[in-house]
Amino acid sequence: MKDRNPVFDVMKGIGIILMLVGHIPPGEKAYCIIYSFHMPLFFLVAGTFAKVGSDSKGAVVKDLKRLVLPVLVTMAFIIALSPLYYFIDGNFNNVVVQVLSLLWLGDAVRTEWGLVTIDSMWFLMALFWARCLFRVVARCCEKIQKLRDEIILVVCVALSFAAILMHPVLPPIPLGLLKGLSAIQFYAIGWYLKHHKLPGWVYAVFVTCWLMALRFGGIDMVRYYYGCYPLDVLGAVGATTLVYLLSKAICDYLAKPGKVLQWFGINSLLILCVNTLDRKTCFVRAIKNVLSIDLTGIYSVMFHYVIEMVLVFVVLLLPLLKAVYGAKRLKEI
């Protein structure tokens, strides 16, 4: 943990909190601001740790453990809890839907039993494929002498653009492969910016693009939607740059809040999976029914989040699950 850069963990901490706020939802303007960069942020941060020429086989095995295994374990819990739908709503179809979702792990598909989807965990499958595909592109370009990094970046952006463009005419694709392809551009941009020092005015342009994108664009990576593609992509980089500067300032001047945000960032995968479990089952609704708690609006949402945080702390007490989700207690940071 000593060699870990806390700034990137704080960035992820801010990102995961914004994800929770975005699920409320917080209102149209706040929603547009959050969704303009909060998911690209995670891919950009992940890209900063990419290594060209590393052991591909070992990296794939590591990614399977870090990204895919938590999805499978979470889906197993969701399937186990999904019968709660039957006892609360008399809806047995949800059990079938969750089993199909575990087998599919890809783009949302409408079936006779309901919508087959892995909800917010699409990010983990997409990141897995983005990492794998990036290594393939980098391996194909490793013998190029001049402008190798620029060529890798251009190829990755072109692949993402093709996936976004072709999505409407393609059939649903399992395992999140197409989402990974559409997100590889942000992963590659994060990698490129980490290894190439760009002048400050370039980042000022990125921030300007973000401000313009708030007016003329809009991102919904789940639906492959970009209101104004160039502005949205560059704008997401600009907003992430601002989050980086904010996170660095927090780490430098606000030690205790920085530590808490760092904890959120390190445990962002666990928080994501617990939030998905709550959204896809009646677990918290069952608790409210048992305790005869009648809450609506923001109070109901906050109650859900309190229970989710309790589940997060329970996982931190279980060594096996803690290892699966790569979770850390605050004192371990």
Commentary on this structure:
The protein has 333 residues and is mainly α. The protein has one domain (6-332). The chain has 16 helices and 4 strands. It has helices spanning 6-22, 28-35, 38-47, 56-81, 84-89, 93-104, 122-140, 148-166, 177-195, 200-216, 229-253, 255-266, 268-280, 283-290, 297-316, 319-324; strands at residues 109-111, 114-116, 219-220, 225-226. Helix 7 packs across helix 9 and helix 8 runs antiparallel to helix 9. The longest helix is centred in the N-terminal third of the chain and has 26 residues, at 56-81. The protein is globular, with a radius of gyration of 20 Å.
Write the layout of secondary structure elements.
Elements: H1 6-22, H2 28-35, H3 38-47, H4 56-81, H5 84-89, H6 93-104, E1 109-111, E2 114-116, H7 122-140, H8 148-166, H9 177-195, H10 200-216, E3 219-220, E4 225-226, H11 229-253, H12 255-266, H13 268-280, H14 283-290, H15 297-316, H16 319-324
Antiparallel strand pairs: 1-2, 3-4
Helix pairs in contact: 1-3, 1-11, 1-12, 1-13, 3-9, 3-11, 4-6, 4-7, 4-13, 7-9, 8-9, 10-11, 11-12, 13-15
